[in-house]
Amino acid sequence: MNKTVIPPNDPPTDQLTYLALGDSYTIGEQVSPNESFPYQLRAKLNKQSINLAIPQIIATTGWTTGELIAGIKAETTAPKYDLVTLLIGVNNQYRGNSIAVYRTEFQELLKTAISFAGGNAAHVFVVSIPDWGATPFGAQSGRDVKTIAKEIDAFNAVNKEEALKAGINYTDITPGSRNASADASLVAGDGLHPSGKMYKEWADSLSPSILKAFK
After folding, report:
1. What is the mean pLDDT of residues 119-146?
2. Has residue 10 got a pLDDT over 80?
3. What percent of the chain has pLDDT over 70?
4. What does each C-alpha distance from 40 to 54, 69, 166, 167, 188 come to in angstroms?
5. How do residues 34-65 score in pLDDT, each as one tens digit?
6. Are the CB atoms for 180 and 162 separated by under 8 Å?
7. What is the mean pLDDT of the chain?
8. What single string gives the DSSP state of each residue in the chain?
């Protein structure tokens, strides 16, 4: 497992702090840290007068919602962050885990994220689960890609419903992730994870709502 956890620092007071929670899609498996979506998001926002500190990332390849909950508890975190992103659930789907359990654990993660944001749900941003079935790995997995897509949609219906219910902004990157079936440049060298190009699309999709929340 590859794990990237950047310990909390003491940035200058003019910088906004950022906590990114998730799995391989948050750490940017198979790409350089600067190509991951949290780092590309930071770079994009910094160019638009949102002075964001280097993100603290709590994520590990393969994590489910339950493992992320445990992982957060095991890490040293700051009492509060200005911005929190959450993208989790693909491994719940991949392993065939219960969607009902996913809902319960996702609700807990949303409460945790809001707490990290100082109680401000408007500063928490949920990202939908991409469709790994659209990748070369998915095509060669022996699993039906249409079934994968339906299951991903079902998990996303849950995380969207729960995020909006909690007053949290929701960014749907799933349709764009499905372009990987026709565009190899959107996939990293392992044939499964997103390339820096796809992560840029995610950062581009996220930034307008974040700019709106902070201006």
Report:
1. 97
2. no
3. 94
4. 11, 25, 26, 25, 16
5. 999 999 999 999 999 899 999 999 999 999 99
6. no
7. 94
8. --EE-PPP----TTSBPEEEEESHHHHTTTS-GGGSHHHHHHHHHHTTT--BPPPEEEEETT--HHHHHHHHHHS---S--SEEEE---HHHHHTT--HHHHHHHHHHHHHHHHHHTTT-GGGEEEEPPP-GGGSHHHHTSSS-HHHHHHHHHHHHHHHHHHHHHTT-EEE--HHHHGGGGT-GGGB-TTSSSBPHHHHHHHHHHHHHHHHHHH-
Q: What does the pLDDT read at residue 14? A: 78
Sheet with 3-4: list strands edge to edge.
3-4, 56-60, 18-22, 83-86, 124-127, 169-171
Assigned token pair, 25: 């899609």
Residue 55: both structure tokens together: 């993100």
**Which amino acid is it at 139?**
A
Q: Is 189 exposed, middle or buried (0-12, 13-18, 19+ CB in 10 A)?
A: exposed
Average pLDDT over residues 23-29: 97
Q: Name which of 87, 192, 102 is nearest 151 in CA terms.
A: 102
Q: Can you give the pTM of this predicted structure?
A: 0.93
